[in-house]
Amino acid sequence: MARLGRVGFLTLAVVFHLIYAYSIFDIYFVSPIVSGMKSFRVEREPDAAAPAKRLVLFVADGLRADKAFQALPDPDDTTGEDTEPIYLAPYIRSRVLSHGTFGISHTRVPTESRPGHVALIAGLYEDVSAVTTGWKLNPVNFDSVFNRSRHTWSWGSPDILLMFQEGAVPGRVDADTYGEEAEDFSSDATLLDTWVFDKVKELFTSAKTDPELNAKLREDKLVFFLHLLGLDTTGHGFRPYSKEYLRNIKLVDKGVQEITQLVEEFYGDDETAFVFTADHGMSDWGSHGDGHPDNTRTPLVVWGSGVSGPRYTQEGTLTGHEDGVSSDWGFDNIQRNDVAQADVAALMAYLVGLDFPTNSVGELPLEFLDASPKDKALAALANTQTVLEMYRVKEEQKKAALLRYKPFAPLADHGQTSVDEHLQEIKAKIADGLYDESIEMSSALLATALEGLRYLQTYDWLFLRTIVTLGYLGWIAYALTTVIDLHVLHGTADSNRTVFSTSFFSSILVALFSVFFFQRSSGRYYFYGFFPVFFWEEVFVRRKALLAGREILMSHVHSASGYVAFGFQSLIFVGVLEALVQSYFHREIFTVCFILGASWPLFYGVGFVKKHALLSLSWAVGCLLMSGFTLLPANKVEDIGMITWSGLLMFFTGLLYLLFEDYVLGQKSSTQSSFAISSRGSRTIMGAQLGMVLLALIVTRSSATSIQAKQGLPFGNQVVGWFVLVASLLLPFLYRLYSNSHYLHRLMVLFLTFSPTFIILTISYEGLFYFVFCMTLATWVRLEHAIYVYTAATRNGSAPSKKPGTEATAVVEGQAYRYRTLGVSDARVALFFFFLLQSAFFSTGNIASVSSFSLESVCRLIPIFSPFSQGALLILKLLIPFAIISANLGILNRRLEVAPSALFMVVMSISDIMTLNFFYMVRDEGSWLDIGTTISHFCIASFLCTFVAGLEFLSEVMIGGVDFGPRATAFGAAVVEAVNGSAETDTSEKPGETDSRTT
Ligand SMILES: [Zn+2]
Question: What pTM was estimated for this model as a whole?
Answer without folding.
Answer: 0.71
